[in-house]
Specification:
This protein has 375 residues and is mainly α. It folds into two domains: 278 residues, Fic-like fold; 68 residues, Arc Repressor Mutant, subunit A. The chain is built from 14 helices and six strands. Strands 1-2 form a two-stranded antiparallel ribbon. α4 runs antiparallel to α5, α6 runs antiparallel to α7 and α7 crosses α11. The N and C termini lie far apart (57 Å).
Length: 375
């Protein structure tokens, strides 16, 4: 059986092919600088809207990678309240959602603070406020006390994907990791984010939540590399799209003898694609702002404003009268009056497709917007 990387002596003396990654790292740094320049050119309210959209996506997608689906409105409202951003239709979040948001915002908004054991334990406690993972009771806010295997398959026919280091070395391994993370090394901070992610996953120090915490650590290090708490790109969103490759490259590199070039290449490539995808997110924010600027004098009620914002933020499925009624907590008759009013104002249109259910879409035409940096 192949040895795991941690079974080699001085396993954390990672090596990589500098030539292989320098060109890719240069492209990522260029895109990172370009994006920060573009955001600097926007007004305060647009930057706030982009920040809110990015952080919401990051929290949702990081949880979804682990198979946990959080409520979009709860996550967005929880983040908005903490950032002091008000908008129509804010809702209260449950404890699990609040915990994930607490961790992510602490990682990104307090990126310049050291990540010590106490802070890490606070993150873990925030992820599992009831001390349970699903139906299972787990140890919270402390390193695991038992062996850890990542397995799949039915009971009796399990396949072991990874056997983590034994629990008696957790304290020693994590002390070394945290000391390195907080020390002033000569490694580029983007590379440090990639190494930290892999290193933490290999140790697997907690009973559960290791993947989400690893991604939060990466976000913290990327915020340090930006020198800003303003998050305008989401690595977790891109990792979710590439989840199969994410697990595959981790599984392959866990058997490395110390060379992590392949992992670094994948991480940087994924980050590059995340930065490119952010331009599309930014365009959506600008389209939304343009729409509301055009309709600043249009008479709309709170329900209509709520639903129009939902359509711009990424409405799930097709808009129907029953969905409108459910989301605005009103009757179907009132929902239909709201919709007909928007049709008369040229904001919504009824789809031509027949069938029992009538659907509605935005009339607003997405203009071609070129996003430029401030010179």
């Amino acid at each position: 059986m192949k040895k795991y990387i941690y079974q080699y002596k001085n396993w954390t003396d990672f090596t990589w092919n500098e030539q292989d990654i320098q060109l890719l790292l240069g492209r990522v740094r260029h895109l990172q600088g370009k994006l920060l320049g573009q955001m600097d050119a926007l007004g305060f309210s647009l930057r706030q809207e982009t920040l809110l959209s990015t952080l919401t996506s990051d929290v949702l997608k990081s949880s979804e990678i682990e198979g946990e689906k959080l409520d979009y409105d709860q996550v967005r409202s929880s983040i908005a309240r903490r950032l002091g951003i008000e908008y129509a239709g804010m809702v209260y979040a449950d404890k699990n959602t609040e915990g994930v948001v607490d961790m992510m915002l602490d990682a990104t908004q307090n990126y310049d603070k050291p990540l010590d054991e106490e802070r890490l334990f606070d993150w873990h406690a925030a992820l599992f406020p009831m001390g349970r993972s699903g139906n299972h009771k787990i140890d919270v806010a402390c390193y695991r006390k038992d062996e850890m295997q990542i397995v799949s398959g039915a009971m009796g026919n399990e396949k072991v994907h990874y056997q983590a280091p034994p629990p008696n070395v957790m304290k020693k391994e994590m002390d070394q990791f945290l000391d390195w993370l907080n020390s002033d090394t000569k490694i580029d901070l983007i590379l440090k984010a990639a190494i930290a992610h892999f290193w933490f996953i290999i140790i697997h120090p907690f009973d559960d939540g290791n993947g989400r915490i690893a991604r939060a650590i990466s976000d913290l290090m990327l915020a340090r590399s930006d020198g800003s708490s303003q998050r305008f790109y989401s690595l977790s969103s891109q990792i979710l799209i590439e989840r199969k490759n994410y697990y595959s490259i981790l599984q392959k590199t866990q058997h490395s003898t110390g060379d992590i070039t392949e992992w670094l290449n994948w991480f940087l490539s994924c980050l590059e694609r995340a930065l490119i995808a952010t331009e599309e997110t930014l365009k959506k924010v600008l389209h939304k702002a343009d729409f509301w600027d055009k309709h600043k004098e249009t008479l709309l009620n709170a329900r209509q404003r709520l639903m129009l914002n939902k359509l711009f933020d990424g409405f799930d499925g097709k808009l129907t009268t029953s969905k409108w009624a459910k989301l605005t907590k009103t009757s179907t008759d009132t929902a239909l009056r709201d919709i007909k009013d928007l049709i008369e104002k040229g904001i919504l249109t009824q789809d031509e497709a027949g069938g029992r259910s009538v659907n509605y879409t935005l009339v607003y035409r997405m203009l071609s917007i070129e996003i430029k940096s401030k010179k």
